[in-house]
UniProtKB/TrEMBL annotation:
InterPro entries: Bact_transf
Membrane-traversing stretches: none
Family (UniProt): Belongs to the bacterial sugar transferase family.
Name of this protein: Sugar transferase
Amino acid sequence: MLAVRRGPDGVWDRSPRTGLGGRVFTLRSLRTRRLRLDLLSRLPHVVRGDLSLVGPAPLTPGDPRAACPGARQWRQELRPGLTGLAQVRSGSAMPWDDPALLDQHYAEHHGVVLYLAVLAEAVRNPLRAALRKARPGGGTDPVQPRHT
């Protein structure tokens, strides 16, 4: 079953975001719960050039994270992404995994290797979670007896 939420504006969520060069565009996403179809529904923004596959999170105009000294410049020089370093590291509780710091780290060190690593992790995480759920026993590995 497709878990699409219906809001006051229908199944589509529309919100203004700031892109490359500070240009504001309207980001359209499916309102989904269980499945991450909202990311797939954003692919037309990649084709149009509003988003990249990997990059910092697209912020709303006036977001305070974009107003920090230095952040305004690199945010305007990079195309925001469908996924990014902050998104693939979001499950970690490490203190340096603050999304703003991870976006800044990506901006300072972005290149082909980091781009591909983030993209691979973005694909691997949902697949790993799906495989855990599909395993008998609710995703836990039973303890195997040792034979000596």
